Structure formats: structure tokens, C-alpha cells
Amino acid sequence: MLDLVIRDGLIVDGSGLPARRGDVAVVGGRIVSVGGRAGEARRVIDATGRVVAPGFIDPHTHYDAQLCFDPYAFPAIEHGVTTVVPGNCSLSLAPLRIDQRDAFSRMFRLIEEMPEAAFDAGVDWRWGEGFGGWLDALTGNLALNVAPLVGHSVLRMFVMGPDAQARAATAEEIGAMADLLRTCLDAGAVGLSTSFVDIDESYRPVPSRWAAPEELDALSAVLGERDAILQIVHEFFDTDLTIARIEQLAELSLRHGITTTLSPLFHSDANHRGVMRVMEAIESARARGAAVWPQVQTRPIDISFTLDQRSLMLLTMPTWWKVASIRDRNDKLAAVADQRQALVDEMNGLALRPNAGLGAGGFVVRDVVHQRNDDLIGRSIDDIARDRGTTHGDTIVDLALDEDLGTWFIRASIGHQNSQAVGELLAHPYVHLGASDGGAHVGSFSTFGDTGYLFSEFVRTTKSLSLEAAVKKITLDPAQIWKLRGRGLLSAGYAADVVVFDADTIGRGPEIASDDFPGDGLRWIRRQEGVDTVVVNGEVTWSAVDGYVAGARAGEIATRS
Amino acid sequence: MGRRQYVFPQAGDDLAAIAARELPSTEHGAQQLLSWNLHLAARAGLGRSGGLLPSDIVFTEPPPAASTP
Hints:
The complex is a heterodimer.
Chain A: E1 2-11, E2 20-27, E3 30-34, E4 41-46, E5 51-54, E6 56-58, H1 66-69, E7 81-84, H2 101-112, H3 116-122, H4 131-138, E8 145-146, E9 149-151, H5 152-160, H6 171-187, E10 191-195, H7 213-226, E11 229-233, H8 239-256, E12 259-262, H9 272-287, E13 291-296, E14 301-305, H10 318-325, H11 329-338, H12 340-351, E15 363-367, H13 381-388, H14 392-402, E16 408-415, H15 419-427, E17 432-433, H16 450-461, H17 467-473, H18 476-481, E18 498-501, E19 511-514, E20 523-526, E21 531-536, E22 539-543, E23 547-548
Helix pairs in contact in A: 5-6, 6-7, 7-8, 8-9, 12-14, 13-14
Chain B: E1 6-7, H1 15-22, H2 29-36, H3 38-41, H4 46-49, E2 58-59
Antiparallel strand pairs in B: 1-2
Helix pairs in contact in B: 1-2
């Protein structure tokens, strides 16, 4: 008797080969047959008229903190995601010394925009200090699979203490970091992540940025020993710097035989030639035999913000950042009134920057508190300012003050919105589909539903990819790039990570505010559209009929091949 | 179109030291480098202590000319 049969679906197995009709049979968390007619099973899922595909793999996430209090990484699973890679961009929750938790937490919360209350309520540090302890704490309490990276910044902090953000490492310290990295990889890390761009809450470069090239080279040698991957977040806002990092990665890849990936790579109509130059550099690296994978996300870029909480959007405006950081509501309102002119000036200054989008109606009122302001929802700040005869900055600050800072604004169409051009990028054989940032930036934008958007926008609308090619991009391709053993393919012996969806309706759903995180504050999420069932290691974990299955904990720490 | 020439800082380097090594015949070499490296010029504190990070990329030639149609 089989445990599970997904009956009579359109099987898109992850290989990119043409879809075919048939059954997928599962025993004990593994696929035992694909295609044809399977026998009787304890549970049968009717997939007639639906696609049956491997579970989706999300290679760029920051679920590190969320996984501590939410084994489902809600709502990732309902979008068909069955494996996530946390620990990107040099930041992982381990290894970390007890007395470094506070400094690290402030850094993580700032960079990944995780609310302090949610982080503190959810992350209990029960695992102690080591990377293996963190994985032990997760094991048995996961509804989806986790393929964790270890962060370069925390390796430096662990070995160098406060000097991690003050100087290059000595040879002895580099040796200690290499040993620590070996320990983490042997415990289950799939690779190392590093950052060349991030800053902490004091505007200081994160520890990984203080590493000399020799240090990264030594750590890459360890990755080569263990056949593990190197992920970087690079200076993605600058074409020449991006190309230089690609060359650096290519050298590391060739010297140590490692796979490398950089994220994100965005398309911009204002810099189309720059994106083409980046892809030429990737092709040049590949021609030399280097494995360098740029990660490209599917969704266009937009950022929502309010004066009520810190946001990526406010980072370059010191007064806005300072005001949004104040916790006490009365103090915050008083500060806004006191700093009003500075707030107005900073916002108007932003309007003068090239491509700021303000004059083009790029800033829009997203939601209001008072009914009397309902007619402003959806209107651009440019439009409202013209009506009122005020500046853009005055308009935003006045409206926020009128609503006790509760107004939500959105800066839309920042980039990556040319679907034709993005579609061509996504279809490129050297492009790795990823960079969702899942679990991060929760108050700025939703990081959920990128996979649904892949199908709705780039398969159905622009037709940039076939259904089979799109599935391959988020299943077997990432499984091979990240060397995730036995995942990403519907084939006998592979893990039974399966998603059943409707190819005609799968989408990302509207972006909605949710107060489900611990503590106060909202986050932006998207609920699935067109997904029927998600199976993780043979266990039905979510379905459109029953929702999230209580107690489903079939997720594993994904292992490297 | 190829990549721009660049170097990584060596231990103790500031832009003047890099300019002396990479642009030995250039007058005002440090200023020249700064003008070619907006990402460094924009960083607070650069003028005070050298300001370079060990992982920094320092371009030693100007940005490419615009491509011809």
C-alpha cells in the first residue's frame, strides 16, 4: 500500500522536459514512481486538470528569526515553497557568543527590517552559541525544509569580537574562522554568505566588509574542501562595481572549484545597457569555466512606508529615520511637530533626485486612518500637492500628522517593472531565479508570492518562459546550484516535496497588511492564488481546502550532495 | 565593453598610497582616484582616516565613455 498518490495530474517534473499526464506515488517521504497509473494508497489527491511539480526552492531568504517562532514560515508554504535558504547576506543566528546577541540582533533587525518586538519575542536563543545547536533547535520543528547558510559577519564576530568591525583579520584569526566555517559546514550549513554593502544601526559597515580579499579567499578554500557555495550581496546599484565583484567571484570559483552566487540583479529601463554589461561579464566568467550565478527576482520593486515605523525607504533621510525610530508615541508625535521643516526638506530633497519618481506620481497614498481621507487612497502625492498648492514634502508630513502618523504611502515603480526585459533575464540560462528576501523587509513590501508571479506574469502574460522552463527555474536548477541532494525533481528516490497548482490561475495574490507577527506593527504579505496542495517530504502540509495542517512538521535540514 | 581596472587596498593603504602605486606619474592622484570612485567619496569619514575598507574595490581608471549608437 502506497502512502500517497497524486492522481492524474499534468506532471511537470522539474527537468524542463515536456509535461505528461500520470500519477506521482509516495512512500515514507520519498517518491517511488512518476507517471502511469499508481496503485492504491492511504491518501489520494485528485490532480485532474492541475499541474504536479516539485516543491519550489527559495534560495535567498532571511527566515532565520521567523523560523524560531513559526515553523511554517507563513505564508511561504501556501505559495508552493518547500525549501528555503536562510542566512544570506553575511547574517545567520549562529555561531554567536552570548554577549554578542544584542549587537547582532540590532544589526539583523536593521538590515532585514525585522520588528524588534517580533524578533525579541520569537528568538529565544535556546540553542546556545553554536551553528549545530541552532540546527538541532530547528530539527523536528519545521514544516518546510531549510538549507542554511552561515554568515561571514558572525564568523568574524565570533573570532574577533569587537575588532570584527575595526580591522582586517590576522593570519591566526583567518585560520580560526576557517576552522569555525568547517565546523558549521559539517553541522549542516550549505555555504557561506557575505556582504559588501550593508551597514549596522550606527551606519558602520558590517563585519564582513572589513575582510581583506585574502580572508575571503581562505574561507572559499574551505568551501572548496566541502563543495559548498558562496553567496554575496554586492554593490547592486552600480554596474562597474557589480562587474568587478563578478570577476572576484569568478577568480574564487576557478581557484577553489566552488559555485558562487550574487544577489540581487535588478533590471532598470534607465540602465538597460548596464544590465546587459553585467550579463556579458557573467557570460565571460562562464566561458572561463567559473560558476557565477546572478540571482534575479520576479517581482517589480516598490516600497511602502509610514512615519510610524522604520523603513528601508527612510534610511537615507536622517530626520525621518530618527523620528520613525522613536518608540513612544507621544514622543514621536512631538518630534514630528518639532522637526517638521527638516522632514519636509528631506522629502523634497528626495524629489529632486534623478528617477525619484515623485514628480511622476511615484509616491501614492496607500491607506489612511480617517474615513474623511478615504478619497486620497490611490492618489499620487504629486496630484494632491498640486490640488493643495503645497510641496510634496508638506503634503506627506501634513497628512501623516493629520492621522497621528498612521497613513501608509507607497513608492511604486522603482525598477524591475519592465516585464519584457525582466522576462528575458529570467529566461537566460545563466540566471538563477531568486532574491525574494523572504521573511525580511516585512514593513516595506511583501516577499511572498514571487513564484506565483513567475507563472502569472512571465509564463501566461509575456510568455517569456514555458511552463516547464519556469518550473525548472525554481526546482531542479536551484537544487543543482545549491547541491541539495535528492530535491527539485519528481523522480523515484527523490524527496516527496510536491506542489499541485492550476497553471491558469496561479498568482501572487494582492499585497495585504497583516498583524500576525508577535508584538505590535504590521507586515505586508500575499496569500496564494491557484495553489491546491503542498506536500513536504510526503506529508500534506497545506491545502486550499484545509489550510495549514496543524502539527505538520515534516521539514528537514536539507543536506548537500 | 570590458570591465574597469581596479585594485583592492593593501594593509594600511589610503587613497594617496594607492595613487602613488597605481598612478605614479599623476599629479593629485588621490583626488583623481576619489573622482573615479563615487562609492568611496560618498562614504562619511573618508577624509578623516583614509576611510578605506579592506574589501573595497578601488577603480584606477575613469568610468567608461558612453557607448556610441
